[in-house]
Structure formats: structure tokens, C-alpha cells
Amino acid sequence: MIIRENIPLSELTTMRLGGPARFVIDIESRDDIIPAFDFARNHSLPYYILGGGANTIARDAGFDGVIVRNCMRGITESSEASNTVDSLSGRVTSAEGDPRELQRVGEDSTRQDPPYMLNALGGTDWDAVVAYACERNLTGIEALAKIPGLAGAAPVQNIGAYGQDISDTFKSAEVYDIATGDFKTLNASDFHFSYRHSILNTTDRGRYFVISITLALAHGTMPRPFYNSIERYLESHPTDDFSPASIRDIVSTIRQDKLPDPADKASAGSFFKNIYLSKSDAAAAEAKGYPVYHGHDGLKINSAWLIEQCGLKGKLLHGIRVSSTAPLVLINESATGYADLAAARAEIIAAVQDKFGYQLEQEPNEL
Ligand SMILES: Cc1cc2nc3c(=O)[nH]c(=O)nc-3n(C[C@H](O)[C@H](O)[C@H](O)COP(=O)(O)OP(=O)(O)OC[C@H]3O[C@@H](n4cnc5c(N)ncnc54)[C@H](O)[C@@H]3O)c2cc1C
Fold first, then answer.
1. Which CATH code fits 266-366?
2. Ligand 1 pocket: which residues have CB below 6 Å?
């Protein structure tokens, strides 16, 4: 277990704002978990679990507490009943030697529990998990390519993109229950997943330290039609290859053109959530000519559209740039501190409220 003191949070979060954290503990093995949380308790300090800091905003005052990071990395694969795969035929042979065709996900919506379990330790880079699955021709998370951050944070806000959410394939997580001191397995149903929510950022925020996650994946391809922007991309780049690896490449290309790479530009990704509407509110919005998206997860208005309609796309507000390619994304170009971000955020929220009457809600967590 490594304990460091007075570490600037601007170095641990992708928005690159925030003063010092009093202590940062890197958990490098299971044996470190209990001592790390005991350390916080014994010093009567609050703790905050941090992954890659891609969905966390820190304030100038820093954090007078203990930042706990899961630094355990690695991916393992197991198949139920010890199945093996013939990579050429795509057939599975069980340990009993009983060959059976793998279900093609795109062809049959009555998909059974898929046989391939991928387990990733929480400190593993999320995109490495996606790459690992795609290299093995496993479908289910290919559209989640290039989402910054670590595997342990992926269920927290039920990461999603381009028509997939992690809840679609999430099987379970091994967690440490900080409240009771127990190690447990939480199944997917325990998480109460919904759009950008789970118990980990609602009812049980801060209670569980995610040690590892297990995803249930299958051979096959994503069902068509794909998400709008993938279909649009295919119109100008036709291909018949919809394998997980191909979709991962397509999504990576679309994202590269649209979204800032945290290595180059400071941001926390989408800064605001989309607006979800009831049926009657959606009908009222459509009557006014607002574009309402009928998604698999409900009726919504894209908040990027709202921000764009307010003339804010590409604008620089207090050193914070509203992205010109993805207006939901705020980029820290030259903010002098958290106050600049707060001022930019307030202007955007007020503009959308004045013009449309919708209240934008911030997506990233705040320390
Ligand atoms: C450029 C960019 C693009 C993005 N695109 C998307 C996108 O397409 N879709 C999407 O859903 N998100 C997107 N995001 C947001 C972000 O990538 C995800 O929320 C990601 O899961 C954050 O991972 P992290 O490890 O950086 O989390 P952090 O910011 O470190 O933590 C996020 C939350 O998870 C908790 N947490 C972290 N690790 C653990 C753990 N081991 N156990 C328990 N709790 C934990 C934290 O306490 C915090 O509440 C984007 C962000 C950026 C910067």
C-alpha cells in the first residue's frame, strides 16, 4: 500500500482542476483494502474512491481526507462449464465434448445467458477491457470503446455510448462493503441500473469499493440498426464487417473526431446529462418542434442540441470552452480555478433554462 501526502487533484482528474488531497492511498493488492479504509477511519478523515478521475471534478480547496485508488489491474476470462472456443468456426465445445453453436446475438433477441465471463480488476483501464473482448470476437461492449477511466468506475454511472450501456452485459462485481467491513458479490440486479445511475452513485454512494467486475459476453455482432452516428458513418464508409473489433474501430474513429482526448485536452467528457421526458412532456416538446429521441432507455432531448440552440457551441466562457464538435463537453482551456468552471456552468444552465425551461443537470461527480 502506498500512502502519499498533499497530492494536487489537478494531477489525478482529467478536468485538471483542484487543490491538494491530504492523503492518496494506492491499493495494489487485496491485502491493502482493509488497512486503507482503516487509515481513513483512524484519522477521522473522509475518504473518496477515485479511478481515472474522468468523471470527477475537484475544487480549489482540495480534499481534506483520503483519496483511495484501486490500482489492481488484470483481466481474466472464464467460460461457464469450462467451454473452449474454436476461433475459426465460432463453435463452443464444452468440457464434456458436446459441441454447440454459439448464439449470434444480432440474430436472436431471445439470447440466453452468454457463456463468456470476463473479469477485470477495478484498476484496469476500461478501454483495455473493450480491446480484450473485441480481440476475442466477444460482443456486448464494443460501442463503449475509448471511454476514459477504469473498470471499477464503469458500473458507477452505468457507462454508455453509441447504443450500449454496461448494464446490458454486467454480471456482478466483487466489492468491499466499507460500512460493514465485508467482502461481497453484488449481482447486476443489486445495482438498480438506469441511465447514468446505479446504487453506487445514488442510494449507496461511497459505500462499496469495487474490487473487480464481471461481464457476460457472447460471440456475435451488435443488432442492427446501430446507433444513428454509426449508421451515418457507414453511409460514407460502407463495410460488411460488423465484428466487435470493426465496430470498436468505427466508434473510436467517430469519438476521435468529436470528443477531446484527455491526454491532450482537459475535460470531464459530457458535462451535462440529457433531458429525459415523460410521454406527455415529450409530446409537448415535439409540438414545439424540439427533436425528441425515442431511445431504448426512454424519451429524451439531447442537451447538446439545447446548448447549441442557445448559441453557446464553441464559445469560451471564463476559460472553459464549450466544445464545437460536442457541445455537451466543456474543455478547460485556461480556467484559473474551480470558480471559472462554476461561472461557465451557471451561464450555460441559465441560458438553457431561459430559452427552453429545462434544467440541465451536471454529470460529473464533485469532490
Ligand atoms: C473525454 C471523455 C469522454 C467520455 N465519454 C463518456 C461516454 O461516452 N460515456 C460515459 O458513460 N461516460 C463518458 N465519460 C465519463 C467517464 O469516462 C466515465 O464516467 C468513467 O467511468 C469514469 O471512470 P474513472 O475511473 O475516471 O472514474 P472517476 O472519475 O475516478 O470516478 C467516478 C465515480 O466512480 C467512483 N469510483 C471510481 N472507482 C471506483 C471503485 N473502484 N469502486 C467504487 N467506486 C468507484 C468514484 O467515487 C466516483 O463517484 C467521458 C469522460 C471523458 C473525459
1. 3.90.78.10
2. 14, 48-56, 70, 122, 147-150, 152-154, 156-157, 159-161, 200-201, 208-210, 259-260, 262, 267-269, 365
